[in-house]
Write the structure tokens for this entry.
Amino acid sequence: MFEIVFLGTSASAPSARRGLSAQVVKHNEHRFLIDCGEGTQRQILQSGIGFKSINRILLTHGHLDHILGLGGLMSTFIRWESIESLEICAGKSVLERVKVLVNDVVLRGTTPPMMLSYREITPGIIYDEADFTVSAIPVTHRGPDCLGYVFEEKPRRPFLPEVADALGVPFGHVRSLLVNGETITLENGSTVGPEDVLGPEQKGTKLVVIGDTGRTDDIFPYVQGANALVIESTYIDEDVDMARQFSHMTAKGAAELAVKAGVDQLLLTHISRRYREKDVAAEAQAIHPNAVVVRDFDTYQVKKV
């Protein structure tokens, strides 16, 4: 299961109720901050997540409404917070812009209080943990090196306790051995292997996070079958020409993608101040009933339906 906390859900400029783009994806002890718009450090404080758990930042692209908060966040780390390491991941041109902001404006030749690393990434798996992966995917927006991110649990074979009971497998550590692929010997001398007590392989939970995008055909293969899709909805369909001009998405376009790709839940963000929230939601829900317009500090658990 993944959990996502929305810290900023406004498009381009903040509004009275919405901050700029930022969200945190959680999986067990892991935390990933995706984008860091202006004011993100305050949103982190207000959310209760805390700074010390934020040590991996994934950027979707280099527009200021998605990166400008890195300056304030780094300043806070320098003055008040102590973390051992911080890794900022993005495409090449995005990192070049971020380095100017962090190194030249904030640090100005001083040594950061943590091990700071900039990691240039390209589409493909960027984190391979024990039970899940994070992949970067190519996205079309204004400018180079735009990326989205796919969080996906690895397939697993569920343990069948009723079968283990019937075979006489005792509770405790020996069951963990079976789950980990080992064969055990019971007190009566019989052996039990993982294939005896594990069910068919099941796909894990899949969460896709897309920043700004002007197309959906190129991201469709990556979105397909997602349990939740986070995607921008800067415009509604009456302004589709403007959306195309600025390479942004409409609520209708996002919903059509979600239906075509078989997405369970559609989470719309990057909402423009020019629209009423209920109008954005109504346009999407007319196509995908399980679509919502998210707000700052909303939290969603993403799991298999």
